[in-house]
Amino acid sequence: MDHNHLEREEKESFPAKEVQELISSFPRARGLVLFKHLCQYQGFWVGRIGLEGVILAQQHFQAQPTDIILSSSPKSGTTWLKALGFAIVTRNRYDHLNSPLLTKVAHECLPVWIEFSFIQNKSCRSPDLPLLATHTSFSCLPKSVITTPGCKIVYICRDPKDTFISLWHFVNSNIPKGTDPFPLEEAVELFCQGLSFQGPYWDHVLEYWNASLEMPEKVLFLKYEDIKSNPVFHVKRLAEFMGYPFTLEEESRGMVQKVVELCSFEKLSNLEVNKTGKYNMLDKFEIENRSFFRKGAVGDWKNYLTPEMSARFDQISEQKWKASGLSFNVASS
Ligand code: A3P
């Protein structure tokens, strides 16, 4: 990897001198991420480039009562949630034949990341959509997200073992030519130590879980596995929470099923745009759209993790989540 090039890019993206100085004082580490430097900020490991955005958003982002914030840790269902949110909100504008989801990757249909918009000096909102996205941990969200009545958060997460395997594949499929892939053992080590993008993963999930219990009208907590096992039920629940409930008439016309099908892994992963297109991240890095669609399966970790690795994940889940009642052993609904 051209580390000098990366360093240069990272430095150029820090216009605010005070924020730059602040960031350089945080602990740094190499982690399981596309760009290897992570900084520890308020308990979470964040990529250097995104961290400036997180801090600027904390300082300047003003939530609106109509905002619906789609939140996730990377590789736990972000693309799916964005597609579902977009399809639900725009279902009276587009149908399954002319939806922008057919020609653009979900990240372009719904382009606003709260934290990244501050780095790019772009608007925090799409003019005709109430949806915004973030990977920021609950405790690092801008305060106005919590204090603004009406502003809602939908969080999606996934079994840590599947999230990890998905992340490991994603990182390896996007590393620059000539760079050695992350060996699985090393990747397990980094992820279990919390050294992944927005890690520790377990803490990211736990914070949103607790928030959803404390503020169920504000935070909807979704599990990837639950949506997989009963998509119609969860899409209806999602639409209702977002304030876009399906009417009985829509239900009788099969509208829920249409949204489910349009956003399904099978449909989206087979579209030309998602097989051959590229997503321009932060106007800096190109990511192949197909790397957002790998298998879309539950339990794929079994094909990769040794019993010892699996036991290590289980032990951390037990230790971090036992008191909270959170688990991924059984689909909850
Ligand atoms: P796998 O790597 O296990 O296949 P994110 O969107 O947060 O980056 O997560 C990517 C993961 O979600 C990948 O998992 C990807 O295949 C899966 N995914 C993407 N779109 C999906 C969809 N429409 N339905 C189900 N899973 C989807």
From TrEMBL:
The keyword Cell division does not apply. Its EC number is 2.8.2.-. Pfam families: Sulfotransfer_1 (PF00685). The keyword Transferase applies. It comes from the Eukaryota. Gene3D superfamilies: P-loop containing nucleotide triphosphate hydrolases. GO terms for molecular function: sulfotransferase activity. Belongs to the sulfotransferase 1 family. PANTHER family: SULFOTRANSFERASE SULT. This is Sulfotransferase.
